[in-house]
Structure formats: structure tokens, C-alpha cells
Design a protein that fits this description.
- By secondary structure, the chain is mainly alpha-helical.
- The protein has one domain (2-116).
- Helices cover 71% and strands 10% of the residues.
- It is built from 4 helices and 2 strands; from the N terminus they run ααββαα.
- The protein has helices at 2-10, 12-35, 64-84, 88-116, and strands at residues 43-48, 52-57.
- A two-stranded antiparallel ribbon has the order 1-2.
- A hairpin with a 3-residue loop joins strand 1 and strand 2.
- The chain is elongated.
């Protein structure tokens, strides 16, 4: 199994996508660390164009966004590894979906920081 895992990450698409995924997750955490300070009043956790802020909570709940991204990345990488032997294209689609989802979560994090500033 470990040999298969090393072979899986030798693929350039998989390797570079995993690096980009880690960069997005670290960027989200750094954005939150640098811009959101602990405070007693609630912060905006979700915003819609129709209703405005519709979900508020404690400041530390904003860290669920990078945690969600990390969970999605692990899930998709695991599924891509399982499917890599049978269907390489499906494996690549799952891996590239990670990047797209993390990009959207990073944009979401930046917008929530702007709302809470």
C-alpha cells in the first residue's frame, strides 16, 4: 500500500495539486490569524446578497472554513487514490476539484474577513 501511495504522489498532477491545496489551506489560516482577533462580540459567519448577514457566531468558528477545506482535500485525495488504479481520469477530476473548492473557500474566507473588518 505504501508503495502504491508513493507511486500515486509521483504523478506530477497529483503532486502539484496537493502542494497547491496545502498552500490554499495555509493561506486561509494565515488570513484569519492576521485579520480576525479574539473578541467577545459575535462575528458574521455567512452572508447572502438577498438577506445580508444570516449567520453569526463566535470568532473561532471562522476557523471551520479551513478545517472544512482540509477535510474535503483528504476525502478527495483518498477517493482519487482508490480510483487511480481503475480510472485515471476520474482520479484527476477529483484532484482538480480539490483545487477549485479550496479556491472558493479562500475567496469566501477573504470576503468574510472584509465583512468583519
Amino acid at each position: 500500500m505504501w508503495r502504491d501511495l508513493r507511486f500515486f504522489f509521483r504523478d506530477r498532477i497529483v503532486y502539484y495539486s496537493a502542494i497547491v491545496a496545502v498552500i490554499f489551506i495555509v493561506a486561509q489560516v494565515l488570513l484569519l490569524q492576521l485579520n480576525i482577533k479574539p473578541r467577545s462580540e459575535p462575528v458574521s459567519l455567512h452572508y447572502t446578497t438577498y438577506f445580508g448577514v444570516d449567520f453569526i457566531g463566535a470568532w473561532y468558528l471562522l476557523y471551520l472554513i479551513p478545517l472544512l477545506g482540509f477535510g474535503l482535500a483528504i476525502l478527495n485525495l483518498t477517493l482519487a487514490f482508490v480510483f487511480a488504479k481503475h480510472d485515471k481520469l476520474l482520479s484527476y477530476i477529483l484532484i482538480l476539484t480539490i483545487i477549485f473548492a479550496l479556491l472558493l473557500l479562500t475567496i469566501h474566507t477573504a470576503l468574510l474577513i472584509r465583512i468583519n473588518a
